[in-house]
């Protein structure tokens, strides 16, 4: 494969959120779907003593939070995807601010019960300054959540960006049955299992009476009403608006249960930007220049302990 082709197929992005919104869990599930790992780690808890794959420092394992940005990559549908899992905690926000200068796009994770929180607002300010394209993943729909329209209003108001839902939830909490995928026109049914990929049913016509047989009469009626409102309230999705940082596509799901992650990933590799030019103090550097170019946003000292006998003389 040639140099230009390699550039075209790359997608480099950061995942940002307020602490505990599910950012690192989403990162690991993306790696799981991409085949980079086979079993997702879990953040340290009373029942699970494993730590997240992307959390490799001792302080991260002790506190159960991401402290430093981790860079991970995998191949997916002929694309090379690079994920930068950033710290969510405000004590380590400076690392995230640096990271946002090195990515071409961003996925924002929002807790469906808590909505947009303070750290997310601060990070979005950096994205707005750089016109970075953003996608929003509203997480934890399997728990009691805010009304989806209220969540979208909150995202628009707090993050100061127009939104366009590309999936729509069917219920929430114990009544959560899945989502209707507006991007791919199918039903994705939810099953509360951490290792199960959701069942997907092609469903172009939401008015098809078969919908009642799948999700029930009342949920079907409500879904049709809400989708009609979505089409009337929110702008048509335009990729150019997304790429210019003017419109954020929104997906709903549950990262812990692997739900909604595959749809997010499929849409992401289709619409997310390839490597973009970088403006420096002296000139703009294009990704396809003849000389090797890269953006250094941080340097790690080695994390591997060495003994006195291994020190150079």
UniProtKB/TrEMBL annotation:
SUPFAM superfamilies: P-loop containing nucleoside triphosphate hydrolases (SSF52540). Keywords: Cytoplasm. GO terms for molecular function: GTP binding; GTPase activity; translation release factor activity, codon nonspecific. Pfam families: GTP_EFTU. PROSITE patterns: G_TR_1, G_TR_2. Residues 8-276 form the Tr-type G domain. CDD domains: RF3 (cd04169). It comes from the Bacteria. GO terms for cellular component: cytosol. Belongs to the TRAFAC class translation factor GTPase superfamily. Classic translation factor GTPase family. PrfC subfamily. This is Peptide chain release factor 3. The lineage of its organism: Bacteria, Pseudomonadati, Bacteroidota, Bacteroidia, Marinilabiliales.
